[in-house]
Fold this protein.
Amino acid sequence: MSTRRAIIIASFLVGTACLTFAIAPPVAAHDAPRVETEVTHRADGKLEVVHVLQLSAAQRLLHKAGVIASNDVSGLKARAQVALYSAKRFELIADDTPVTLNILGAEIGGGHLYVYQTGQLVALPKTWSARNAILRDLSPRFDNVINVPTLDGIRSIVFSGSDMDAINSTN
């Protein structure tokens, strides 16, 4: 009888573990601490920069750091504060020349906070470089990824670990 009970318990535990691991990856991927930045270069020379922050993580960290007054960025003032915070922690460099970026604003959608910036660049550079400490200065667990257009397609500049003040590039 004890062998039969042990087999049932072992089967239950194995089944529970398999179910847990089958469900866990999507949840972990959804909560991955990351800021994604997309840079688009239009034919008229305009650069569009969109920073995508996870809403709940951004609100919590920015409130805890005193960047926003409450754990809520739905108000215009809080979104403006987040846009200013983000602009100070992001720098884009085209062939060793800093690109001047202007803040357009920020909005909430689909569980994310979007911060928009724009700039001007006549042609795509040979080398993109960037500094991106958005939310990483508040939690080094965050990875920041910047996707930039090149003549060969989209390239990614990745920030992770202790490279808080680093300037990384596509080369």
User: Anything to note?
Assistant: The first strand starts at residue 34 and ends at 41.
